[in-house]
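We treat protein structure as text, and this decision shapes the records that our systems exchange. Because each token names a local backbone shape, the row as a whole describes the fold. For reference, a complete record is included directly beneath this paragraph.
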Amino acid sequence: MTMMSTSKRILITGASAGIGAACARRLAADGHALILWARRAERLDALAAELTSEHGAEVSTATVDVRHREAVRTAADALAEPPDVLLNNAGLASGFDPVHEGDPEDWDRMIDTNLKGLLNVSRFILPRMVERGSGHVINIGSTAGHMTYPKGNVYAATKYGVRALTEGMNLDLVGTGVKVSGVDPGFVETEFSVVRFHGDADRAARVYDGFRPLGPEDVADAVAYVIGVPAHVNVLDLVVVPTAQRNVYVVDRA
């Protein structure tokens, strides 16, 4: 399959770390112009400076918490034109408890970020893509959106929801020239587990004991592929896992 090399304007949410930052680095290296949104302004500014210095990339940034609808609206309205690609990457896991012992604040944090945040951004970017008659939305999901696991209850529910939204958006956007893709990683070593375990780095490290997980750069490679396919091609759902992982339960730990 021949890949497209045309430069695109790409908006990445949750761009200051992990998969978002890796995607920014890969896509800047590929010659794309970037719009980076995240909560942590200092990290965002440092990343933008790096991409400009190393790749001569065109980069703009905005400090945006996708949970805050009006902040998202303001940032979207400030864009002179809609991006060619929206990468809905902002997301997290918070807590690791059985449902009957779960912390509702953890639930709210996941639902507000993973689902409502994705909806907030999509709601204010998509209409302008539709008006233009072209665009591409890529939602970062998870293998947890395909199979649940013990104590993954609400996180998995949000990622099942992301997968449903990817399917639903595709249906709603038929005939508009806008396509929607999902990229669903398995185990990726980022800040993800540190956040889930509320800063317990030792516990987070044990998640990856005995096998080599994906790095964020591996997911960025998958995203770059999905962006680069020809306009008449859409990758509806791309699941990418480390070789040691065969589903959410079965992992070859040496």
Q: What stands out?
A: The radius of gyration is 17 Å. The mean pLDDT is 96.
